[in-house]
Amino acid sequence: MQRFDALLRDLLAATPSTTTLGLAVSGGSDSLALALLAHRWAKQHGIRLLAFTVDHGLRPESASEATQVAQWLAPYGIAHTTLRWEYSSPLRGNLQALAREARYALLVEACHARNITHCLLGHTADDQAETIALRHARLSGPVGLSGMSARKQQDDVLFLRPLLTHRRAELRAFLSAQQQPWMEDPSNESLDFARIRLRRGMEQQPDLVAHWLRLGALEAPKRQALEQDYHTLAAHFHLHPLGFLELPISAYDELPPESRLYALSQMLTSLSGRLTAPRYTELQRLDATGSGTLHGCILRRTPSRLRIVREPANVTVPTTHRRNRWDGRFLIQNSALDDFSPLGPKGLSSLRRLGVQIPHIPATVLHTIPVQRGVEDRVDLPHMYPHTHPAIGMFPAVFSPAKPLVELPFYSVQQPL
Question: Residue ranges of the chain with pLDDT lower than 50?
Fold first, then answer.
């Protein structure tokens, strides 16, 4: 398929060269078509492939399905590794969102361990249309309505989507012509999920896919304009090593209203340590009030500056699928994250009684930094918190949020309408 080759070539041309590509292969038709197309392309360009299947462990048959994927890929010479999600039961909240976050985190960790910098994903034009429709229902702005970028970066791994120009039906026809079977995930039949209900509706009204893709194509230039304004604003950022941001209020107020909302979304998502953005309507309310709490952050506006800090009450307990990243914000190497906790008001008071002071840092910020508590109430601080007290140690840490404060530009593709 020439469109696959052309898009993958263009995506890779704008990035550093690589000798190995990761592949996310679930065993469904989209990801298996990705594997076969990538295999043909890789042979022509001398690139090695390594496929990853994430076993979420949510169904009894998931382990055997991962084994089946490995068996299907073996004749093509594609190496395969199964990544297993270890989670605490019971899972609470949006199961699909939790599984998606875990999936990306596992892929990132696996790529890091093997020095892989690029990983291909099997999202199709149908997935793009569904994403745009779901975001439209949530009253998203241009960022949401432009859909998925053909590339995204997470923790120094570049995820590429070379199938965004392909419809699922043509990929299945391609697999059938290759006599390659695929799996049907039972969860893709469950009407409990909004995306599946939407998919069934699109199957009954095929023109809806083209409708949503056209909307995405119209919104993409608007998103790119917002990104340009944000990159201009970012030149004024003062990001403190302890993880809070300040910028001149004049630079923020000069932005058009839509650009301010985009900037708020980017800043709040990054500084909160999260991967998902706040809802558009919530951003509108915060922008109108000027100050407040949203998405795990506190925003304060003064006549001269805007300050965004992590909200102490929302600092999260580390989870096993977020690699060495405490609260989604601080990378702490060679330590068990469960050994760390927020300093908090009591901890800050204890430090002050010992004579440890840090000028010009808001107490709210200090409440949210990681500390390592030892025996006899010993507290070690991150090395960005300078002090000379003999009873207090330091550990290496760096503020490196899960979602970078400034990301790669949106990459739009010509959709099959």
Answer: 319-321
